[in-house]
Amino acid sequence: MTFLTIEGASKRYGAVAALDDVSLAVPAGSRTAIVGASGSGKTTLLRLIAGFEAPDAGRLTLDGAVLADGPAIVPAHRRGIGFVTQDGALFPHLTIAQNIGFGLERGLADRAVRIEALMRTVDLDPAMLERRPHQLSGGQQQRVALARALARQPRLMLLDEPFSALDTGLREATRKAVAAMLEAAGVTTILVTHDQTEALSFAHQVAVLSEGRLAQAGAPHELYRRPHDRRTALFLGEAVLMKGQAGVGWVDCALGRLPAGTHGHRGEVEIMLRPEQIRFTPVEEGAEQGCLARVVEVEFGGALRAVTVALISNGMKLRITGTGLELPPTGARVRLNVAGPAHVFDA
């Protein structure tokens, strides 16, 4: 069931179109990630949903109630929406208990009990309640900010790059914990991020914005494997792009004949492979069977590695990612094989 509906939302700042006719449906209880390059309109869209800005045109509804119809909007404080920013925006002069309870009525009989319960919900020790924000780690501060937002029992939670200030290990752990908490609470969530990996791992639905327009929206694996165009493909991760000749269910390219969903396309097309689809095996000098290449560069990155090869047939260079266990020497000859189908762009 659709919980939040955005229909034809547009917003301009002077001559700049921050958003141009964006439509998006967010299912109830789901997590949606909005991604895009800087200036693509991500934060503007989040602010329209929160009620901090009014659209110039378009309609927003939440659980059947109209939030905005063009410039006519419901004020932010009447929307029942939680908002967590990049830095958490905790009040430095208040204790953790006071920060979490900031939005709760002071006369509530069970106020202290609810604050302690919220601490446990975000997996923090209630013994921290008398500390100040500067006495907590970055990840703990973000959890406190989430607890404060949850205190008002929001119908919708908006997260504006809340993990970007954390180091890599803490960022991943915090993201997983927050996703689990929100799912357990049944809160519909929208995350804005510039981190593609974060979006793909956090969300049930990913929406890609490009220059103020919605380029594509769908399940993370669908967008990653079958993007509509090369810009979306390259934004969501590394991609091997090349020309090919399409037939019925196949495409001929520099890597040979590959299976592909050609969707009625014939003749010259542009195809995409994700680097992890390309595998290689060492071959002896003089072995000429299959698609051969020579290793020109090896990049070791711990658990992952990248190997750049040049095709023997035409010199085309391909960057192949994989586990750090596969480290062929520079200059070695390898045979390339492709796992899975190639993707043919729609246009």
Automatic annotation (TrEMBL):
ABC transporter domain location: 4-236
Protein species of origin: Labrys miyagiensis
Annotated signal sequence range: none
Family designation: Belongs to the ABC transporter superfamily.
UniProt keywords, alphabetically: ATP-binding, Cell membrane, Ion transport, Iron, Iron transport, Membrane, Nucleotide-binding, Transport
SUPFAM superfamilies from the UniProt entry: MOP-like, P-loop containing nucleoside triphosphate hydrolases
GO MF assignments: ATP binding
Record Gene3D superfamilies: P-loop containing nucleotide triphosphate hydrolases
High-level lineage: Bacteria, Pseudomonadati, Pseudomonadota, Alphaproteobacteria, Hyphomicrobiales
Protein name listed in UniProt: Fe(3+) ions import ATP-binding protein FbpC
Origin superkingdom: Bacteria
